[in-house]
Amino acid sequence: MTLEVCTIGGFSECGRNCTAIKVDDEVIVIDMGLELESYIKHTQNDVKNPVAKEFEPLVKINAIPNIDHIKDWHFKIKAIIPSHGHLDHVGAIPFIAPMFPNVPIVSTPFTIEVIKEICKGERMTLPNKLIAQKLNTTYKVSDKIQVEFIEVTHSIPHTAMLRVITPYGTIIYANDYKLDHTPTLGPPINMEKLKQVGEEGVDLLICESLYASEDRHTTSEAHAKQMLEDALLNNPMPDLEKKGIIVTTFSSQIARLKTLIEIGKKMNRQVVFIGRSMRKYCTAAQRIRIVDFPKSIPFHARRPVVQNALEKIQREGPEKYLIVCTGHQGEPNAQLSRMSRGETSLNLNENWLTIFSCSVIPVESNIAQRKVLEKELSSKKVHILKDLHSSGHASGKDHEELFKLLNPKHIIPSHAGPEFGKQLIKIAEKLGYKEGETAHLMGDGKRFTVK
Ligand SMILES: [Zn+2]
Ligand SMILES: [Zn+2]
């Protein structure tokens, strides 16, 4: 009679999330994510010396979770269960899941579509069966393991808080979530449901800790919408109607993209989406009808097509368009950086506005790249508006609320290194938890016996 957890990845640093749960001799693996910075650095930028996209080399550079932490459990794996479609949760599936060809991948419908798109991008077909599980339903892995996909708010559609129900106890996996009462796409967070889950008993909560140190609630997606509407509709800068506008945001942020389409319509501008990942996520969303993007909206992904589209925009008048594109972190190869360097047909100058509807992801390379991008834009006298954004991650006060609702016996911080995890434990301590007894800082590759 054992219920055991192995914290495979995402517990020592932010990225490559992966957790295994073992019930007697059956195992499920939740999430198989990428650590994007290492992955991109070693597979794309370093063209002269590319690292093979296989398990061993990718593990060596810390880009994917080291599934060998549970080598003794490999033959017991019954299901792979991603919680949502962000790359730090599903990006390593093409490299790890084929090692277990008979194990199904079970997740929410949008997440399954995203996984298909990722595999298409890698030019591979998964041998694993893909099972789309509706939100707020329960998947029976075996007689001893059931997984409920509780719909929660985050920054990508169809995010699930997973409730793993076993004969020896219940584990909640809240990695990632936010408590949004006024989202702009999908239902608000169901507090009643979370309370009920708490009343029915939670033995262990695995909880993201990224913004645990921020002693506040995360603002709603409605707030980001308001900021964009204020900048572009309600309180625009002088002569905005004569300016070309570029908005850059996360391509998986479908709610934000929907807002931008609505704003574009009100401004009487043609919205144009540019960027490969933009097309990937929007195709997935459209395929399962999460949103119905108007047919008139073009998605330009491949470089020659983008080139032609931008040429047309410059020729016909940028003031007729609202360009939505990738590259908000200043990625040197993304379209926005190319535009800023004058490598496209767009003639950026003081008649242009660039809006960053995002935050800078706080890793060194992003901070440096963004600086370069903003410097390029400023040198061309482009107006810049920054941080018109709401995060998808819960902050300190949200975590406190979640702990009270779920009332778990034990808490394990995830989704960041120990310095962030400690902040989450501090919040738990206010509620009577004790580090080492009921709140546990784990690190990658560690095991924890629940019962
Ligand atoms: Zn996420
Ligand atoms: Zn994440």
Could you walk me through the main structural features you see in this protein, from its secondary elements to its overall organization?
This protein is an alpha/beta fold and 451 residues long. It folds into two domains: 3-217 and 392-449, 4-Layer Sandwich (Metallo-beta-lactamase, Chain A), CATH 3.60.15; 221-385, Metallo-hydrolase/oxidoreductase (Rossmann fold), CATH 3.40.50. Helix content is 32%, strand content 20%. The chain has 14 helices and 19 strands. It has helices at 36-45, 55-60, 87-90, 93-96, 109-121, 191-200, 221-234, 254-266, 276-287, 303-316, 335-340, 364-379, 396-406, 418-430; strands spanning 3-9, 18-23, 26-30, 77-81, 105-107, 130-132, 138-140, 146-152, 159-166, 169-174, 204-208, 244-248, 270-274, 299-300, 321-325, 352-356, 383-385, 410-414, 446-449. The strands form four sheets. It has a six-stranded mixed sheet with strand order 7-8-9-10-11-18, covered by helices on one side. It has a six-stranded parallel sheet with strand order 14-13-15-12-16-17, with helices on both faces. It has a five-stranded mixed sheet with strand order 4-3-2-1-19, with no helix packed on it. Helix 6 (191-200) links the parallel strand 10 (169-174) and strand 11 (204-208). The longest helix has 16 residues, at 364-379. The model has no long low-confidence stretch (mean pLDDT 95). Bound molecules: zinc ion (2 copies). One zinc ion (ZN) is lined by residues 84, 86, 154, 176.
